[in-house]
Amino acid sequence: RRFTAESVKFLAAIVLAVLLLPWRLLKGLWSLATRKGAEAGPAAEAPAGLKERVARWMDGHEATKGLAFVLRDKTLTLLMLITAVESFLVEALPMVVLPNFIAEVLGPAPAGVPFIGTLLATSGGILGLMFSAEYLGRFVSSWYMEGDRGDRAIARLGGARLYRMAALSSLLIWGLWLVPTLAHGAFWVGLAAVVGAMGVIQLFHAPVGVIIAPLKRSRIPDPVLGRVESAFDMVSLALASMGALLAGLVMDLTSIGTAMGLIAAAVTATAVFQWVVARKLYPKAPAPPPAPQK
């Protein structure tokens, strides 16, 4: 009974934390738009509300102390919200929707093409090629960001610009959906759109992990590092499973085209959010003072 009670409390804490994330997002965007957040000092903070009461309740349970710490930090809350949305789509798109999309819309390679036609004669072969392009883009980006070369690229472009480049690349999901759909029957055109879109998206998204890791680490003290990292992993795994389940239900109730359209719209909303919060996560450095005149 005690184990059941603790499990119920644990799941309730996850649900409450996820429900509070959109509220924190709207509050953060409002502060960003009105610039009140930068003008108000520590003494101008509002009295404890629902968020703080939930955080205090989470502090009373070992399993949710990491979530409580995240709720009290605006930057970590924004990062968790982005992680939650991306995790909601990360399993649904490649593991549930794309295999059905390839089978129903793209189809197998035309017969008579030696070797390549045999490799791409099934949905599994096409899906393998798509994953290969995805990992190739990730590898090339990671190779380029390694060592001093990556440090110079980050210093030249800045975290906000790299983050926004990744957000813009996410919009290629529309080409992945619309090109094979509109060019139905043109197998090679559709294949190039699917493989190219996944490769380019990963090419621009891989550096985000490089710039996000130090930002997140700088907000987490050593004594609670394990708890906070576990909270991020917990939310990510929970939302990934829910996304895959929901995607399957949408395809059962509607069609593969509707499922792809909804995912493309969700990815676009995520990209817009990432574009807006990029400057909040990576504010511009203050301009250096003018040199004294002689």
Offer a quick outline of the entry.
By secondary structure, the chain is mainly alpha-helical. The protein has 14 helices and no strands. The longest helix has 33 residues, at 2-34.
Walk me through this protein's architecture.
By secondary structure, the protein is mostly helical. The chain contains 14 helices and no strands. Helix 6 (92-106) crosses helix 8 and helix 6 packs across helix 14 (256-281). The radius of gyration is 22 Å and the shape is globular. The protein starts with a helix and ends in a 13-residue tail after the last helix. The model is unreliable at 35-46 (pLDDT under 50).
Q: What is the approximate shape?
A: globular
Helix content: over 70%
The overall average pLDDT, rounded, is 77
Strand percentage, roughly? Answer: under 5%
Query: Could you list the spans in which at least 5 consecutive residues all have pLDDT below 50?
Result: 35-46
| Pattern of helices and strands | HHHHHHHHHHHHHH
Q: Label the structural class.
A: mainly alpha
Report the count of strand segments. 0
- Largest beta sheet, briefly? none
**How many helices?**
14
Q: Quote the distance from N terminus to C terminus.
A: 79 Å
- Give Rg in angstroms: 22 Å
